[in-house]
Design goal:
GO terms for molecular function: calcium channel activity; calcium ion binding. The chain has 1245 residues and is of the alpha+beta class. The protein is 41% helix and 17% strand.
Length: 1245
């Protein structure tokens, strides 16, 4: 909107003469005094325009107000046209008004569509379409009527206006005041971009510091062989380690002593960390096979353990790499409780990891690297794709998405009912989510390509290997400490490389890289895309004006949410699944390792003469004692730490589950409203007022015949369903559609629906049929009439005047949109014969008098329903109302009513509704979490999962939750459909709320079941206390005796209920059916009965009641209590001898004292023994690989005469093939013919 002139401008172009245009406007709110102006080559302002019309005076074309300007009225004008929408104040004329006559607070919502139309024929000489001799006469949304003065074949076309940029308009309206939202948003985004770049630069510097190579403290200056060792810490929140870490490596030629890593600090062994160390040895180890890692568990909880994801050894002399995919915990309180583990090298063994392990690892890595928003904060330290570049790609993605969204944006009227959710003032609509997803699909390949460029672009100059710099500095310090001068220490500490004249072998790069110039090219592309997008968005914002820009920003916010919450995670999961299924696990190191010069180090001549280790001897990597898990102190510490960890999860689980219960309670509480009860009581008092009497009968509770019903309908019903005149006899202006209480608005109009029995469904038995010729029969679904009749319920020709009554025509349930109803005397279908109570009150009363005369209610009538729905905007409640008048076969009328108030919509401005909506979102998130957890439990336990009570309870809770979510969505869709129809017809059409209310009833019942099961689940969470099982244990112990007792109890009780039913069913309503008799008998056991009424009904009542009370209330109930108490005493004695599984209260108190520094933290260090075991005493599972080696050595010497080289698998395969060709083949068993792969045993999780 322009601030100087309160008008909203919309522009369009016409390129050909003889064109016409059609402006369709559909106001979503009050359209009173809305004016539309049209001008050519200028902005329409008061006094300067071509056309001016009031919107409310425009004709309806396709149910929308339409301004149609044909070819004659347009007068061959082409070029730019501008349409303006505003609101006139009272008494202003649309053709003659000034700026003061425009409402400065105009803020109406509307849909606007501009269509340019034309008629064309194909001019063959010019080979082009022409409009000569053609003009547009009239048109609608689907057809165009053309006029022509020649007989050429012609056609018509129309084109909705696409948003274009008019720079003349932009220059004239680029002021800050008129476009404050646009400027503030762009400035805020620019400031946030600058802040993010400063933060990214700071974090990049910190990453460079953390990515340095650290020499191991126990390196010796005389050791010349260099390895670079990289340890990767896992992604778990408790993954960091503060304990002392030891490791050993074993290869073909040699193995290391016990080496230890530097002590933990703020930059080492953190979550997601990649810590690189340089290790020196006296001679090469050869191809690595074993890695043993153990810790002393000395760190503070919970960082006394370590989640080790991967270890990579890089041989700097031979440029070879050895990867150990560990994926294990070194912890006393995790899984198998091992703080000492041995791993096999992944390079020399088949991949033994499962799909879930590969998926877990790859997803974590991809979330850190490929999610463009998350990777800014979780960027791996070893990636050359820095944070500043990631921020640049994110901002480019943001602005390019804004540009594409603006290019295809359509101006849509926003109303509260169009959006199914709100985040503050921002609406979340399904159409906007689909549009946002489409925009992201176009932008995602572009930003993914930019990310790949930054990730794979190599540096312009390679840097020297960091490991060499680190080892030289350490050697220099060590030599100077030994007494050498600085010059000598510097000279002797240098790593000797290969002679310059010696050619170095070519090696393939570990990671394929792009040329160095692609990185600055990527920066240029990002800057150009971002600058161009900002300019175009700025131009569109000024062209649209303030109101449209605000709507567009609200629409684009949905695109931004879809990008963060949906599209990027889908990309991460898809790439992870493909990588887990199709690709070989990547054992390469990070990107920055490819940015270093490959070291060419001189090798000692002695290293070329090394022989492999004897496979018949036990390696030192298995002989070192390390952490002794069989020690009593270690076992006790492991049990204690495991219990503490379990109790931590128990306390946290109870706390989180209580939060879930609080969320669920808020959702349940949102369904309960005292106004619903008051509204129901108000309607029951209105329609069942004791003061409404006739012939000394109170209506409608004492209706006797059809005359009473007609009197009740024409007086109380009609007077209540219409707003009557005020006390001074003035008409109720502005209250059309409201009830007489002037607070509740009718949704649609009320109806009277009759259910009647069909003809010939009953025959009078002999001999009464001689006097009484016919009967109408009893009510039932199968006996209902569904034929069409004339007046007085006679069959006739459709052309007769008496057959023109619509009230005698049957309508089924689908036509009426009604449901089956259960009354006091029977069940009725949703169809029937209907009287519409719409129109003027006098006309309706006259119609009711006429229907009474033609006997619309007769002897075959079984029920008449008064049905309508209302909405109370003050308390935001819908209500369906049903009053059932059942005509008894024995005479008289029985009434039953049901008023169902429900809340189906939310208020935008209500803080309570916003909190409830947030809790509903949390409920959906919790349901997804519980679903994945139950699927994981089913995977672990398989069929045994379904034989445990609590598992079935949790599974039913998950299924009910998903059903609840589905019902919520279905209810919302049904409500929005009714509300749209209500707004479209202004509430005057036939509308029913039965289906939304029915779905809401199911929704409420399932919500109650979810609350019931969720509260009961607290018993499971608190089973760490032995007393929480007392109920289940007591019932299980006495179940056999109790089950036999219950059989006898049910037999005796049902016998008495049957006796009471047959004695009292004629006299007392409480015993009118067998079910009500059973219910009343239970009430009698609880002491709730009317003895005087029973005594008057039958003289045997006192004796029967005395026997029933003694036998049931005294004898049987006490026997049941005795059985339960006996079992309870046994359980109580048994529980007194048990101990609690977990002392949670003691744990919480101890944890509180530690937090409050009232008690020091205990040191949970285990004893680490670095000595070696005697060879004859090696019996642990870590000796198994050496035992296998000894076995292979014996087989080699016995069967292959020593020809088998155990260090070369290829030579072994050759020997096998030679032996197979030379020896005669034996017939093998089918299972022995298979070419089985040798399995690899991992000593890890």
């Amino acid at each position: 909107m322009n601030r100087a002139i309160p008008l909203v401008f919309h522009y369009f172009n016409i390129t050909s003469p003889q064109a016409a245009y059609m402006i369709t406007i559909d106001p979503l709110s009050n359209a009173s005094r809305l004016v539309i102006l049209v001008a050519h080559e200028m902005f329409p302002v008061p006094g300067k325009f071509l056309f001016s019309r009031l919107v409310e005076e425009l004709p309806f074309i396709d149910d929308s107000r339409t301004l149609f300007i044909d070819s004659d009225m347009n007068r061959n004008r082409t070029g730019r046209f501008v349409a303006a929408i505003g609101k006139l104040l009272n008494n202003a004329h649309p053709s003659n008004f000034t700026r003061k006559d425009l409402d400065p607070k105009f803020s109406s919502h509307y849909n606007l569509k501009i269509t340019v139309l034309g008629c064309y024929y194909y001019d063959e000489p010019s080979l082009a379409w022409s409009t000569v001799g053609l003009k547009v006469l009239s048109a609608n949304a689907t057809h165009t009527i053309c006029g022509t003065n020649h007989l050429s074949q012609f056609g018509s076309g129309f084109l909705p206006i696409v948003h274009e940029i008019d720079f003349d308009f932009i220059i004239a309206n680029m002021g800050f005041v008129d476009n404050s939202t646009l400027y503030v948003t762009l400035i805020l985004l620019f400031v946030l971009f600058i802040i993010a770049m400063i933060w990214g630069h700071y974090k990049d510097k910190k990453d460079v510091e953390r990515r340095g190579v650290i020499p191991l403290p126990d390196n010796k200056p005389e050791d010349k062989y260099i390895y670079e060792v990289t340890f990767f810490t896992g992604p778990d929140s408790d993954a960091p380690c503060e304990s002392q870490i030891y490791f050993m490596a074993s290869g073909d030629y040699d193995e290391t002593e016990v080496r230890f890593l530097p002590k933990a600090n703020s930059n080492l062994y953190r979550r997601y960390d990649r810590n690189t160390f340089v290790m020196t040895t006296a001679r090469p180890l050869g191809s690595l096979h074993y890695l043993r890692v153990f810790i002393d568990n000395k760190g503070r909880l919970p960082y006394d353990s370590w989640q080790l994801e991967r270890v990579v050894f890089r041989d700097l002399q031979k440029s070879k790499q050895y990867t150990f995919e560990t994926n294990a915990w070194l912890a006393l309180n995790r899984r198998d409780g091992l703080a000492d583990r041995t791993f096999l090298c992944a390079n020399n063994n088949e991949d033994m990891s499962t799909f879930s392990q590969r998926m877990y690892n790859i997803t974590n890595r991809n979330a850190n690297q490929d999610h463009i928003w998350m990777s800014v904060f979780l960027r791996p330290t070893g990636s050359r794709y820095c944070r500043k570049e990631r921020i640049m790609v994110c901002v480019t993605f943001l602005f390019v998405s804004m540009l594409l969204h603006a290019m295809f944006y359509e101006i849509e009227g926003e109303s509260p009912i169009d959006a199914y959710a709100y985040i503050g003032p921002v609406p979340i609509a399904l159409s906007q989510m689909i549009k946002g997803l489409a925009v992201i699909i176009f932008v995602l390949p572009f930003t993914t390509l930019l990310g790949a460029v930054f990730k794979r672009a190599r540096p312009r100059k390679y840097v020297r290997c960091r490991a060499l710099d680190a080892i030289e500095k350490q050697r220099e310090r060590q030599l100077r400490k030994n007494g050498l001068t600085r010059e000598d220490a510097t000279e002797k500490s240098k790593v000797i490389g290969k002679p310059e004249g010696r050619r170095t072998p070519k090696t393939e790069p570990v990671v394929k890289c792009l040329p160095w110039w692609t990185r600055p090219f990527g920066w240029i592309v990002c800057g150009a895309a971002m600058t161009g997008s900002v300019f175009m968005v700025w131009s569109y914002g000024i062209a649209w004006g303030e109101i449209t820009t605000v709507k567009w920003f609200s629409s684009f916010f949905t695109t931004f949410l879809v990008s963060i919450l949906v599209s990027q995670w889908l990309k991460v999961v898809l790439v992870s699944c493909l990588g887990s299924i199709c690709c070989v696990p990547d054992h390469s190191v990070e990107d920055i390792d490819c940015d270093e010069e490959l070291p060419m180090l001189q090798e000692d001549e002695e290293w070329a003469l090394m022989s492999p280790l004897d496979p018949s001897t036990v390696r030192d990597v298995h002989r070192v004692v390390g952490v002794t898990h069989d020690d009593d102190a270690t076992k006790k510490l492991s049990v204690q730490l495991t219990k503490d960890r379990d109790m931590k999860f128990i306390v946290r689980g109870i706390f989180v589950y209580c939060l879930f219960l609080a969320v669920l309670f808020i959702i349940v509480n949102d369904k309960t409203d005292i106004n619903a009860f008051l509204l129901q009581r108000h309607f029951s008092g209105t329609f069942f007022d004791d003061k409404f009497t006739m012939d000394n009968l109170v209506f409608p509770n004492e209706l006797r015949n059809t005359d009473h019903f007609w009197h009740y309908a024409k007086n109380l019903i009609m007077n209540t369903c219409r707003a009557q005149r005020w006390y001074n006899n003035d008409p109720p202006y502005g209250l059309r559609g409201f009830l007489d209480d002037r607070a509740n608005r009718m949704v649609g109009y009320p109806i009277l629906r009759q259910i009647r029995n069909a003809r010939f469904v009953c025959s009078v038995p002999y001999p009464m049929n001689e006097t009484i010729p016919d009967c109408t029969g009893t009510r039932g679904l199968l006996t209902e009439d569904d034929h069409d009749y004339c007046a007085n319920w006679v069959l006739g020709n459709a052309s007769d005047v008496a057959c023109k009554f619509p009230e005698f025509k049957y309508q089924n349930a689908s036509q009426l949109k009604t449901l089956a109803t259960v009354g006091r005397l029977g069940t009725y279908s949703g169809g029937g014969y209907v009287i519409r109570l719409d129109g003027y009150e006098d006309d309706v009363n006259e119609r009711l008098d006429q229907l009474q005369k033609v006997h619309w209610i007769d002897k075959r009538t079984r029920a008449v329903f008064l049905e309508f729905s209302v909405y109370n905007a003050n308390v935001n409640l819908f209500m369906t109302c049903m009053i059932c008048f059942e005509v008894s076969e024995g005479g008289g009328i029985v009434t039953k009513w049901r008023f169902e108030p429900v809340r189906l919509l939310r208020l935008e401005s209500s803080a309570k509704d916003n909190v409830a909506f947030f809790c509903e979102l949390m409920f959906v998130v919790s349901t997804v979490f519980f679903t994945f957890r139950q699927l994981w439990e089913i995977k672990k336990q398989r069929c045994g999962y379904f034989f445990q009570y609590w598992n079935l309870a949790e599974l039913s809770l998950v299924l009910l939750s998903w059903l609840e979510i589905a019902l919520y969505i279905y209810k919302l869709l049904l409500t929005l459909a009714v509300a749209d129809e209500f707004n479209r017809t202004k509430g005057n059409a036939y509308l029913r709320m039965d289906y939304p209310v029915l779905v809401d009833q199911f929704y409420t019942c399932i919500l109650g079941l979810i609350m019931f099961v969720s509260v009961l689940k607290l018993i499971k969470l608190m089973q760490f206390n032995k007393r929480m099982d007392v109920l289940a244990l007591t019932i299980s112990l006495c179940w056999d005796e109790l089950s036999y007792f219950l059989i006898a109890f049910v037999i005796i009780f049902f016998a008495f209920s049957s006796l009471f039913y047959f004695i009292f069913f004629l006299y007392l309503l409480e015993f009118s059916s067998i079910l009500s008799a059973v219910q009343t008998s239970f009430s009698m056991m609880l002491g709730k009965f009317d003895f005087n009424v029973m005594q008057q009904a039958n003289s045997l009542s006192p004796l029967l009641f005395f026997i029933f009370s003694v036998l049931n209330s005294m004898v049987l109930v006490n026997i049941m209590l005795a059985i339960i108490l006996k079992a309870f005493n046994e359980i109580k004695v048994d529980l007194s001898k048990r101990e609690n599984t977990y002392d949670v209260l003691d744990y919480m108190w101890k944890h509180f004292k530690k937090t409050a520094v009232l008690q020091p933290n205990a040191v949970n260090q285990v004893k680490v023994n670095l000595n070696k075991k005697e060879r004859e005493g090696l019996q642990s599972e870590r000796d198994f690989p050496d035992k296998v080696g000894q076995l292979l050595q014996q087989i080699n010497s016995l069967y292959f005469d020593g020809k088998l080289d155990l260090c070369k698998p290829e030579a072994a395969k050759t020997v096998f093939s030679v032996e197979d060709d030379a020896r005669p083949r034996r017939k093998l068993r089918p299972d022995a013919r298979r070419d089985k792969k040798p399995t690899t045993i991992f000593f890890s999780d």
